[in-house]
Amino acid sequence: MLTIKSKEITYNSAEVLMDVSHCILIAGQDGKNILLSHPNMFLHSETRASIKTSKRYASIISMFYRFLSTQEKMKNKALGLYHVLADNRDIKLWQVQRQIDRVEAQSLRPSSETIYEDAKILLVYFKWLNDRGYLTNVHVTLKTWRANFRSRRMLNYVQLMARSKINASNIRVLDKKNRQKRSNFLITDPEIKLLLENYSDPVYAAMFNLALGTAMRPMDLAKFPYIGNKDNKHISPYSEMDKHRITTSYTVYKSKGNKDREITIHMADLKSLEENYIIPYYTTRKLLYKERYGHACPLGVLFLNKKGEPIDENMIASRTNYTKNKIIKTHPEFRAHLAFYQSRHWWPTQHIIATFGDRLLTESLDALYLATAQVLTAQMGHDDVQTTYKYYVDMARLIMLLHKGRSFDLVTSPAQTVRDFMNGLKMPEDVLANEEIESIDEEEQMAG
Questions:
Q1: CA distances from 297 to 240, 269, 288, 307 (A)
Q2: Are 304 and 282 spatial neighbours (Cβ–Cβ below 8 Å)?
Q3: Which of 42, 182, 272, 383 gives a 20 to 30 Å CA spacing to 331?
Q4: CA–CA distance, 271 with 4 (Å, rounded to integer)
Q5: Which of 235-244, 249-258, 391-400 has the lowest mean pLDDT?
Q6: Are 403 and 421 in contact (CB under 8 A)?
Q7: Sheet (strand 32-35) strand order
Q8: How many CB atoms lie within 10 A of CB 370?
């Protein structure tokens, strides 16, 4: 089978006159390394704003090209012709093959929904080619590319081709188990406490706490400074800041989509950050940084691991995944799909509960939206918040019913931090256990 490697590159683009980062695909065939020109042009054009998006799109195109290499029609055909020869039927067959492999392995992943969403990303790739005049056989406007896994004939075919053992789970059963594993999209309070208590390096717990209180993405947290500059020149350790204020502003530079935005940070969370990370760990770690890199740690770098290395979003994801797997061994009720990114969704839900209280259960969505949508737009960094807002209102209403109004005031509480709130909770571990709510933000699914 064809081998394809994905490589992350950074360079100065003559097209946009600035440094860009994205993935490229390099195929190994007949002892040669071959750049996949058309996929790489697409990745440059459409994914350079987010390296996570670039990795995901590159992975999907790579999987599809490897599948094509196994098809008779592609035998002895040059890789540069794959985008021309592939058609809607090939995309459907790729989906079917993924289900066959999944059923044969009796795996919960990828779910039917994921397989479908991945196929849609392939359509984005082929539409990009079509729009730029490159010849393809994929008709994006036709629905003949989608495999119908609800069809009895299709289910029977997949089951037969998978050569499963007697009584093995079929697609529907595996999808059901997958949904059960992912039930309650929002991370629960007991799960937050378990995660904070089990990180082997306290820097990740400090970052998770700050994420809970700000809704910052991991990529934004990694750039949070010890001492800020420009619009953030007022950012310092809490003991050096104006303590008479309840909150402070913070400008997030070059977040997803290369966009800047101003968010609100609770001063109590900065105090917690100083007490639980900066005072006990930062001084030692910045010395380790100097030993490792030969120069003083920049003031724009705050979060360092035990070796003095700056924390990046990949490190956040991998350490959280390791910690989660460790927790599951002693607490099997801890849900396997949870990742660091869940912290980002905790903030808007709690903010809506704190803002509206019992009104959530009586007033219309439109009235609630007008009152606080702008706050969520700024804090979350979404261009169009309507869909996500409705999701968070629905989640907040559910929590209001089950938690009986217990919420954390992220914006106006003068003293309480996220850590204080979590320590004061006494809640059954199976709260929300019977609800199934799906994520509306696909980038969270990449972490961990």
A1: 19, 23, 9, 13
A2: yes
A3: 272
A4: 48
A5: 391-400
A6: no
A7: 3-13, 18-29, 32-35
A8: 9
Residue length, the chain? 448
Q: What is the largest CA-CA distance in the chain?
A: 72
Domains of the chain with CATH codes = 86-181 (no CATH), 189-446 (1.10.443.10)
Mode of pairing for the β-strands spanning 261-266 and 3-13: unpaired
| Residue 379 tokens, joined | 């804090």
- Give the three-state DSSP class for 283: helix
Residues contacting 25, CB < 8 A, separation 6+: 4, 5, 6, 7, 35, 36, 39, 40, 43, 58, 61, 62, 65
- 302 versus 107: the higher-pLDDT residue is 302
Nearest CA to 413 among 208, 252, 264, 225? 264
Helices 37-47 and 112-131: angle between axes, nearest 10 degrees: 100
Per residue in 307-349, pLDDT tens? 999 999 989 999 999 999 999 999 988 888 888 988 888 888 8
Q: Does the predicted model carry a pTM greater than 0.90?
A: no
